Structure prediction request, 256 residues.
Amino acid sequence: GHNMTIAITNASLSAATDVTLNGTSVTLNGTSVTSQSGNVNITGNGERTGVTLINSSITSENNITITGVTSSTESWNGYSTIAGVTLGGNDTLKGRNIAISGRSVNDTIPDNAKYNPGAAGIIFKYGDNYSFDGNVSIRGESQSHHGVVFIPRVGQLNMNITFANGSSSIEGRIASNHGVTITSVDSGAISLGTWYDNESVNFRVNHSNLTITADSSNVKNVAINAFAAVSAGGESYTNHRTNGYTFSGDGNVSVV
Prediction:
């Protein structure tokens, strides 16, 4: 039911037709989900987290749809994630069409949270390898902080994200800033938190095309970047230079 918290750990779920998980929050940890001839639908609408995948795999002959919403007004402290959708660890998704949508609908930036990473529509958190096979749409939206944010773990050289065999898109959007007068140092429609090291995100595009879109144009009274990158120390670390995003493979990439 949609009013319950669903947490599945180290399990294997398989069905001949549709697989549907719908709760106030849904967490899959070390779990595989397979639909042999139907669709996989996962929906979470929670106060702090919507849908979380950690070291999990989802396979469908048809469509995979993941929709997560967080309604929290708090700021993320770097440890307790606040996000519509969190992709943690190493996750693998394979389907004809894969749609991941995450929204943070109430986040604001209090005056004491200038260096706070904030909430996000979608967080890629601490994973070494993510794999998407099929047509992929990843869309994250928040009010003030991050549409989509990549957080490599400390000391991790590369976060690898592979898109294969389809048309793929990543879209990050700041919907509105609720009239706040301060922004977090790493706020952005699409953000990279590089912490203290020179981590980067490597997009591998194989037999696929990838379009990346960042849009913060709805923000009117303060500056929030479309693309943002910062180390944990904020301005004091902005002289650390790194290739934040790298691209490889045989596909085409467009950045908007």
